[in-house]
Design goal:
Elements: E1 2-6, E2 14-19, H1 30-37, E3 43-46, H2 69-81, E4 85-86, E5 98-105, E6 115-129, E7 133-135, H3 147-170, H4 172-175, H5 181-189, H6 197-200, H7 203-232, E8 236-238, H8 252-259, H9 268-298, E9 322-324, H10 345-359, H11 393-404, E10 410-415, H12 416-429, E11 436-437, E12 442-452, H13 459-468, H14 471-481, H15 510-531, H16 533-576
Parallel strand pairs: 3-4, 3-5, 9-10
Antiparallel strand pairs: 1-2, 5-12, 6-10, 6-11, 6-12, 7-8
Helix pairs in contact: 8-9
GO cellular component, one term: plasma membrane
Keywords: Cell membrane, Glycoprotein, Membrane, Receptor, Transmembrane, Transmembrane helix
InterPro entries: Insect_Ionotropic_Sensory_Rcpt
């Protein structure tokens, strides 16, 4: 039986014929036997963002630890072990050639239908910042005990107060004895409890209130031991953990809130507010997307045009968060390209849902990230200009780093893998600064390796085995870690030798002091009024009587003085006559 072998060139479609005298048919069908006898010859092309990586000779089996060539060298070693040829340069553009894409992203899929995917990870956008706002809260008064303990404690106190009050009125001898059970229990918490002798001799009061005294000592000491460290510690810090907290009073949030709801039952004023908000945001959205489109179109032409395009920062609000991100390649998922993005990565990502919203604005739940698509946010670092001819990618990275480590209202946004790497580098470079990563991830999508036109090849299975063994993820982590080897800090912070220590003060504790004093005074006044209500009434009556009597005496003196003055005046008139 003879089998034709596929030639290397299309003009010699069937170059050789291999014949065999005997075939053992112990498994499979005829197609399986034919496929087993035919010698497989394959050609593969590796699609990398950097075209220089596709020109490496396949005989180089040592891993190159720099740049994006780690995956290429790994693929070349697989090809060399399986007798597979490696295509280079223009031959990769052939329609039916086998291709492997090491950086497939579901956010930018290709158009080819014959694709096999190996998912290695999930990517998305997160942010990093060191910006934090201190705030004061009264939670430390409740944090020492859990909620269940507070409920049991309140129930116990209420029960003891009710029982002791009833027993006090039940005993005739104690009915006239001035004693407030709830005031005693409150005073015992502060270790100032005092009980009248007549009540102290009663067995019920000695047992119930005695047990409470023992409980109050244990609870008070435990409460103070937990609460005091919280009281004297620095104030808590608020830092953003989700993209919703980066919003700068976006009008689009009003549109998102009501557009997906049934507007029939809404009042007319609310409907008018929604219409006004939608019209206002539509104007802002149209203006900003036109500005982004203008930059994307005109900036690449700055080298040949006399009138050059640059940023328009007149609408940037310094009170809003700065949303900084790096400039990255805009290469396709299946075709390498040298075209660079002229806008930052996160702004380019927001442009895609913005364009989708303009075409189909009905499903508002898909466009929640558009609350950040506003000209009030700064998407570019300070001092950036498209007119700077000597500005490199490393310079932009240093500008972003220098602005982020100032701990202003600025966040750095990137993909999850790069954010983790950046957080590790900044935390190591600036140990005195605490950096925070967002807990929310937006625009999540799977990433991995894609294979086109596999045609029964065993190469995808080899890569799948490497992925299951963790080799691919290890190589990807290794490649990312190489990017910060020679990277230095953008800003030189003060070292411990140059740092001049300052005296410790209680300036930060003054708000807590005023809160405690105000709370105690506010609670003491109602308690004083309730407990002294029997004396307050007569006291107010006495003060009113005293004021009335004084006013009466003053009026009487004025009247007597007037009568005397009239009598004296009449005497003077009589003498003159």
């Amino acid at each position: 039986m003879c089998f034709s072998q596929l030639a290397k060139k299309a003009i010699y479609l069937w170059a050789t014929i291999i014949c065999t005298s005997e075939i053992t048919s112990n498994q499979g069908n005829y197609v399986f036997m034919v496929g087993k006898q035919i010698m497989r010859w394959e050609e593969w092309c590796i699609l990398e963002n950097d075209p220089q990586t596709t020109t490496l000779p396949y005989k180089t089996l040592q891993y190159d630890k720099t740049g994006d060539s780690i995956f290429t060298q790994l693929a070349l070693e697989i090809f060399s072990k399986t007798n597979i040829s490696f295509l280079k340069d223009s031959r990769c553009s052939t329609i039916f050639v086998r291709r492997v894409q090491p950086k497939f992203s579901a956010s930018n899929p290709g158009k080819d239908m014959d694709v096999t995917l190996i998912q290695t990870d999930f990517e998305g956008y997160q942010f990093l910042t060191c910006y934090a706002e201190p705030y004061t809260t009264l939670d430390f008064y409740l944090s020492p005990f859990q909620q269940e303990l507070w409920i049991v404690l309140g129930t116990t106190i209420a029960t003891l107060i009710a029982l002791t009050t009833l027993c006090q009125h039940f005993f005739i001898l104690l009915e006239q004895q001035p004693f407030s059970p709830w005031m005693f229990m409150l005073a015992s918490i502060f270790e100032e409890g005092c009980m009248p002798t007549r009540i102290e001799k009663q067995t019920f009061f000695r047992i119930s209130l005695g047990i409470w005294c023992l409980m109050s000592v244990v609870l008070t000491n435990g409460y103070n031991g937990i609460m005091i460290p919280e009281l004297i510690s620095p104030r808590r810090l608020f830092h953003p953990i989700s993209f919703d907290q980066l919003d700068c009073n976006s009008i689009f949030k009003i549109v998102l809130t009501y557009k997906n709801k049934d507007g029939i039952n809404l009042p007319s004023s609310t409907k008018k507010e929604i219409r006004d908000a939608a019209n206002t945001w539509s104007f802002v959205y149209t203006s900003f997307i036109f500005e982004v489109y203008r930059l994307s179109t005109l900036v690449p032409l700055n080298a040949i045009k006399t009138e050059k395009a640059d940023l328009n920062l007149t609408n940037v609000d310094i009170s809003c968060y700065g949303l900084l991100s790096a400039f990255e390649d805009s290469s396709s998922a299946f075709e390498p390209s040298l075209v660079k993005r002229v806008v930052p990565e996160f702004l380019a990502m927001l442009k895609n849902p913005a364009l989708a919203y303009s075409r189909s604005p009905s499903n508002y739940s898909m466009f929640s990230e558009l609350t950040l698509f506003a000209p009030s946010h700064a998407f570019f670092p300070r001092g950036f200009s498209y007119l700077s001819e000597d500005l490199t990618e490393s310079d932009i990275q240093r500008q972003i780093e220098g602005e982020v480590v100032q701990c202003g209202k600025t966040v750095f946004i990137a993909k999850s893998s790069k954010i983790k790497l950046e957080h590790k580098f900044l935390s190591k470079t600036y140990p005195d600064i605490k950096f925070f990563m967002s807990e929310q991830t937006v625009q999540s999508y799977p990433t991995g390796i894609s294979f086109q036109n596999i045609w029964g090849s065993l190469v995808p299975n080899t890569f799948k085995s490497l992925n299951e063994a963790g080799i691919l993820s290890h190589k990807e982590t290794q490649k990312l870690s190489q990017k910060n080897i020679n990277r230095t800090a953008a800003i030189i912070m003060e070292t411990s030798k140059d740092f001049n220590p300052t005296n410790t003060t209680i300036r930060g504790a003054w708000p807590t002091v005023f809160i405690l004093a105000g709370t105690l005074i506010s609670v003491s006044i109602p308690i004083f009024i309730i407990e002294c209500r029997r004396h307050i009434g007569p006291l107010l009556g006495f003060m009113r009587h005293k004021f009335s009597f004084r006013h009466y005496r003053k009026s009487r003196r004025v009247a007597v003085k007037s009568v005397i003055n009239v009598a004296v005046a009449l005497c003077e008139i009589g003498k003159n006559n």
